[in-house]
Predict the 3D structure of the following.
Amino acid sequence: MLNAKNVAAGTLSALMACTGGAVLIISSAEAAGLSRPELISWLFVVYFVGGLLNLLLSLFYRIPMAGAHSITAAAFLSTAAAHYSLSELAGSFLMAGCLIAILGFSGLLTKVFQWIPRPLLDAMLAGMILHYAVDMIPALQQSPISGGLAVIGFFLVPKISRIIPPLLGVLVFGIAGLLLEHDFPALQTSGFTLPQLVVPEFTVNGFFSLAVPIAVLILSNDVAVALAALKKNGFQAPFNKLIAISGLGTAFVSLFGGHSVNIGGMMTTLCSSEEAGIKEERYRAAVVSGVLVALFGLFAWKAIAVIELVPKSFIVIITGFSLLGVLLSSMRSAFAESSYRFSVLFSFVIAISNVQVWGVSAAVWSLLIGTLTAKLLGEGRAATGQQGE
């Protein structure tokens, strides 16, 4: 039987995916010039399939695994997707899924991450999403009441209860501010449409500029975080199998325009923690999360209409708050290791620039130049004599 802790943790976990993550996908679709049916297809497939996949995994293994899609990959796509057609995006997503599946089936993940030091991954991620935090400042000026109440909610709710994440306070207080600050027109929803099959187009540019960064982001900031959280909380998860399943799921949803389906890092962290109840029953929190996420995907055609009524400034505020935790943890991890200096700095600055050179995205250049800098200057493990540990 479900208990209050299972329901609370599962609900909060789902909120993590269904707020800022949905906004980022809508932003990515707008940047790519997708039609409304194509956007609905994207949202439906990543949330419905993602929620269902994690629900089934939790029931099968009796281990709390929650997730939908990669929010960090969606953040990356909100700027990178503008240069590609839907077919090219689908081909890149499919290649990303195949890369992840190959790493899972072969067990090569450890070797791949030995090539790219974790601080450089974090520096790249922090640089890619930094502007979301910066954009919050002018957005707060544009929506002072809703933005101000959202800030109050961010600081007040954790004081009331440590179980409730600050993002929930941002949403509740921010929405209250919206009702005071704006007059909303009548809600006009689009009709329900089935997911649309997309014929993928494979390009070299798409592989290096989209597929590789997306695979790295999913593995390092979602799957790896989730597996680490499970291990920390005493769960023995099938490491390689879950990586492979995330890759196969991503490859499947790519055929309908979805960018990823995987185990969520922060969502799994919440559902596997003590806040979700006694250890033997925590998988039920992930089941609750999976059901809610899948339902969100099923009604994505209505959710889009609601989100579009909300002022863009408020969406920017919510998106920024939803990524603050990722930004903070990424910057802390990137700059905490003193043996990495210029390599981390170069990765961070290049990622912030968001420029493309020879059609290759800033994310790839960030990792490539950062890794080469670390090798040439003997930074990191090379400097401490810990290579291969």
